[in-house]
Amino acid sequence: MTRAPETRAPATRALRADAARNRSLLLAAAAAEFAERGMDASVADIARRAGIGKGTVFRHYPTKDDLLAAIVLDRVEELAGLARQLFLAEDAGAALFSFLEAAAGKQQQLDFSFLRDAGDINERLRESRERLFAAIVALVERAQAAGAVRADVTGLDVILMMCVPSHVVSFVPGAAPDLWRRYLALVIDGLRPEGAHSLGPVPPIGV
Amino acid sequence: MTRAPETRAPATRALRADAARNRSLLLAAAAAEFAERGMDASVADIARRAGIGKGTVFRHYPTKDDLLAAIVLDRVEELAGLARQLFLAEDAGAALFSFLEAAAGKQQQLDFSFLRDAGDINERLRESRERLFAAIVALVERAQAAGAVRADVTGLDVILMMCVPSHVVSFVPGAAPDLWRRYLALVIDGLRPEGAHSLGPVPPIGV
DNA sequence: GCATAACCGGACCGCCCGGTCAACTTGTTA
DNA sequence: TAACAAGTTGACCGGGCGGTCCGGTTATGC
Fold it and tell me: What's the mean pLDDT in A53-59?
C-alpha cells in the first residue's frame, strides 16, 4: 500500500463542490419527506424530490437509517443547545416553558418518535439524545425548585409529555399551523403545581 | 338463474361451525398482532398466529383494512356504550374521568391512531366513530356544567387528549403495565378548572 | 351415507422497497 | 489542458408485502 508523499490525509476529505450541493439538497428533501410521511417515506421519493439519483443518496448515507439519524441529530443538538442556554435564564419556570414551546414547535417539522426509531441505530445519536435529556432534566429540576412545576413529576415525565402537542395535532386533518399551542397550554397546566391532584400509586420510570 | 324453493336466503347465511371458530381465532390473533406492531403487522403473520392459512384470512375479510376495521369497530362500540352508560351517573366529573380511564386502558390493547388509519376505509366505522364522539362530547359538556372541567376546553380537545397516555407509554420500553395511569392523571389535571391558565389565542377546532 | 356447497390453504402474482454496482460524467489539481 | 480521483446515475437484485386462485377437504341437510 503506497502513500502519496506530503499528503496528510484529513480525517474526512473535503467534499467536492457538486457533492456538497447535492448533500444539502438531499438533507432538505429528506427532512421534508420524513416530516410528511414519517418512516414510510421511500428513498426513491426523497431522491426524486432532491433532484438527484437514488445511488447518490446511498453514497452520502450508506443506509436510510443513517440519513434519518443525520437529520434527527441536527434537531437534537439544536434543542440541546437551547436547553443549556435557557438554563441560565433568571425565571426558571418561564425557561422550562419556553423550552417546551420551542420543542413542540420543532416537532411540527420532525416528530420525536424518530428518536425511538433512529436511536437504536446510531451511537452518536444516542449520545446526543442523552445529553439533550440531561439538559431537560436540569431545566425541570430548577423549575421545581422555583415552585413553577409540581414536585411529583420527573424529568422523564416532562420529556414524554413534551411530545404530546405535535402528536395530537397530527390527528387533525386541516389543523391551523399553531394549533399545537393549544395542547401545549393544556400539557403545561397539567405540570403546574396549582390545583395538582395525586398522580396515584404508579411509580415514575427511571432515566 | 334458479332459486331453491322454500329457501328464504338470509341477509347473511349462517356460518359453518369451523368457519366460525376460525373467524374468532383470526380476530384474536389480529387484535394481538395489531396491538404489538401496529399497521406494520403482516397478514401472513396474523394468519400464522391464528393457525390458519393466509387465504382464509382474505375469505373472512377481503382486505387487511377490513380486518382492522372489524376489530376497531368492536372497541369503538364498546367505548360508546360505556360513554352512554356513564352519562347517567350522578357525578358528572367522575363520570368523564372514569370514561377517560377506561379509554386509556383499552388503548393499551389498540391505539386510537387506528381510528385515523381505518376511518377512511369503512363507512360503518366512520358512523360508529361519530356516535362515540358525540357521546364523549355530551359527557364533557355535562362535566363542564358541573364545574368539574375547565370551560375553555371543547369535546374534541378531550377526545384528542384521551389518546395521550397510551401513546406516551409506548415510548417506554419496559413500561409497567399501568404506567399509563400516571400520564392520564397528568392529562386530567390539565383539564381541571383549578389553577387553569389561558389557552391562548389559538381557536379550538370544530367537530 | 351421500351429494353438495361452503370452506380451507398455500403456491403464486405483481408491486414496491432498500440497497448494489459498473459504466459514465465532472470537479480538481498540477 | 491533461489526467485522475471523486461523484453520479439508473438498471438491477433479493425479499417481503397484500391479494388471488384453484385443487383438495369438511361440515351439513336430506
Answer: 98
